[in-house]
Amino acid sequence: MNIYDLIAKRRSIRKYEDRRIEDDKLERVLDAARLAPSGKNVQAWKFIVVRDQKLKEQLVPACKGQKFMAQADAAIAVAVNEEEVYQGHGNYMTSFAVDGAIALDHLTLAATYEGLGTCWIGAFDEEQVREILEVPRPYRIVALTPLGYPAHEGRDRGRKSLEEVVIYDKWN
Known about the structure:
- The structure is a single chain.
- The chain has helices spanning 3-9, 23-34, 53-62, 68-71, 96-113, 126-133, 162-165; strands at 45-50, 74-81, 117-118, 139-148.
- It is α+β, with helices and mostly antiparallel strands.
- It has a single domain, classed as 3-Layer(aba) Sandwich (NADH Oxidase).
- A four-stranded antiparallel sheet has the order 1-2-4-3.
- The chain is globular, with a radius of gyration of 17 Å.
- 32% of the residues are buried.
């Protein structure tokens, strides 16, 4: 499968099989996240892999009741050290959210390649997740994803056309 087919194939998966991810697959997926670019190559992230069922069940209410977080073999939280990251991103913000998002995107694409499913979770209460997973400050939770074998294909939610989203040269 080429990269363009892989990108087109990725779907948000909200139902998972009761099946363990092989250790070598999990390691490859995590390594893809590790290899992501970050502002000034700081790599100020940690990937928290949650396989303990009780912890995954605690994450469900912290993730606005998304029950599939506990259904997948693993839940992964991306935490980024807000003080360690590049501080001058765009000359107005730190790069913590961008760095974490790029790493999670690498993870979701690698998971798709490995036949695994993910679902980008942005609906969560950071303080609840921080407490459940005992994440220290100055780390910030950027996003989470379940990771496991999909019990369905996921649906194509459509995308805007290139003409709707691309501007060449100047905004006009």
